[in-house]
């Protein structure tokens, strides 16, 4: 188990309970928070810290649960503030509140709007991108981000096993680029991992 400081650990546990209750009651998908499962969050934290990632982009902030893990990992590596994109204004507001409660608000820049449009405007370079939003639009976001990725960039995408049909286009786009070594970890809902091969 990843050891977070007591305050962050308590907040993370609280958010897990809140999300489980919210998603059980929500009647529409847009009302659900769809947070990462804890084992996946811990694996993402390990991949970022062990890989000493310093500039990370998250697509799909929701209420900030995963952003707390990502920002905490970047704090451990001495990285730059996380850039996180969320199209739902109410969820972005929740994320900012939760990040402030974790004392990580200065470590995360939450951008509101369409992820595909925002990705095309971001300067980069990013050495890690976490795709956790609309899986259908992920191929377009990947295309916009490829020129903005570091040489050894790490791409992570959740729901590889729970929504194989929806994420298929993204996985095909990653493979078609010919730039990445890939595998899927059977943790949580399935984490697809792609490591960019540095040019010789």
Q: Would you give an account of this structure?
A:
The structure is a single chain. The protein is of the alpha/beta class. The chain has a single domain (6-196), classed as Vaccinia Virus protein VP39 (Rossmann fold), CATH 3.40.50.150. 44% of the residues lie in helices and 20% in strands. It contains seven helices and seven strands. Strand 1, helix 3 (65-77) and strand 2 form a beta-alpha-beta unit. The longest helix has 20 residues, at 6-25. It is globular.
Give the CATH class.
Alpha Beta
Helix content: 40-55%
CATH superfamily: Vaccinia Virus protein VP39
Radius of gyration: 16 Å
Tell how many strands the DSSP assignment holds.
7
Q: Give the amount of beta strand, in percent.
A: 15-25%
The arrangement of helices and strands along the chain is HHEHEHEHEHEHEE
CATH architecture: 3-Layer(aba) Sandwich
Largest beta-sheet characterization: 7 strands, mixed
CATH topology: Rossmann fold
Count of DSSP-assigned helices? 7
SS-derived structural category = alpha/beta
- The termini sit apart by 37 Å
How many distinct domains?
Answer: 1
Low-confidence stretches: none
Could you say which overall geometry the principal axes of the C-alpha atoms support?
globular
Q: Report the average pLDDT across residues.
A: 94
Strand order of the largest sheet: 3-2-1-4-5-7-6
């Amino acid at each position: 188990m990843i050891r977070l400081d007591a305050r962050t650990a308590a907040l993370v546990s609280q958010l897990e309970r809140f999300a489980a209750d919210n998603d059980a009651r929500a009647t529409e998908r847009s009302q659900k928070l769809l947070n990462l499962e804890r084992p996946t969050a811990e694996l993402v934290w390990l991949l970022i810290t062990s890989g000493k990632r310093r500039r990370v982009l998250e697509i799909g902030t929701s209420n900030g649960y995963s952003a707390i893990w990502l920002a905490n990992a970047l704090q451990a590596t001495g990285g730059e503030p996380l850039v996180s994109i969320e199209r739902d204004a109410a969820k972005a507001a929740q994320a900012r509140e939760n990040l402030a409660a974790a004392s990580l608000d200065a470590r995360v820049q939450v951008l509101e709007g369409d992820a595909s449009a925002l990705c095309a405007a971001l300067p980069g370079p990013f050495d890690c991108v976490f795709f956790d939003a609309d899986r259908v639009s992920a191929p377009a976001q990947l295309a916009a981000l490829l020129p903005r990725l570091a040489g050894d960039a790490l791409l992570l995408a959740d729901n590889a096993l729970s929504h194989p049909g929806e994420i298929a286009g993204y996985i095909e786009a990653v493979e078609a680029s010919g730039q990445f070594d890939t595998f899927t970890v059977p943790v949580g809902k399935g984490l697809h991992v792609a490591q960019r091969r540095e040019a010789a």
